[in-house]
Write the structure tokens for this entry.
Amino acid sequence: MNDIAKPWANPAPTNPILEAIRFDANGLVAAIAQQHDTGEVLMMAWMNADSVTETLATGRVCYFSRSRGKLWRKGESSGQTQHLKDLRIDCDGDTLLLLVHQDGVACHTGRRNCFFRAARDGALIEIAAPEISPEKLYGHG
Amino acid sequence: MNDIAKPWANPAPTNPILEAIRFDANGLVAAIAQQHDTGEVLMMAWMNADSVTETLATGRVCYFSRSRGKLWRKGESSGQTQHLKDLRIDCDGDTLLLLVHQDGVACHTGRRNCFFRAARDGALIEIAAPEISPEKLYGHG
């Protein structure tokens, strides 16, 4: 017998996309979500290899929740799903840019995007109001 | 003597912008740079409190280089400066969105932005070419 007869001994087929990603010591990579047609930066979250694989397979964005320590299928509790339009990797492989279509709002506060506080004269002001209440989003109302 | 006579004993004046940022265990916060008028996401890098303070004071974007372990004034060796137009903080304070005007190119490869590799049919393709050679950018040519 030689190695050719032992396919189970071969390494798993490589995935050039996963191989290009430089996951950090915790197995995570930063992922920016941008609305594909307007350019609005919606949020930043983290992905692990499984969430990248699932996102590419399903076309629905799946992150890794650091606080909950598990896969986080965006919209699974709020209904505010992100549909993948394109996945890009930066020059050094440690950041992903996800071009998506965002159903509804991206932010858990009910705002369209998470970057609703802006620096003005040394302080922060809110530049966007919620479009929907968190209670309505998460059904705790 | 009482405390009022010892101004040097008082804590430093608080900065509401720095206070809103949740720096990680290494004292860093993720910062996304976006071209302010076109919406193009240029790059993602890291800032510490000093680089945020300097950026707000000077209007020129200063990151913290994790590889070099020091402040990184974007463009200091390449001439490709980022001019701050707006600084925004996300809902949980662990990501900044910098709206900037980018002089020239943002990526050290000479491309306008760092996200020039896109997933296509399970592989990566390059979707942008360098606009200037790295040798020209960094004077090693």
About this structure: The interface with chain B takes residues 15-17, 20, 30, 32, 34, 38-41, 43-44, 56, 86-92, 95, 97, 107-109, 111, 114-119, 122-124, 127 of chain A (CB under 8 Å). Chain A has a mean pLDDT of 92. The first strand of chain A starts at residue 29 and ends at 35. The CA atoms of residues 111 and 129 of chain A lie 6 Å apart.
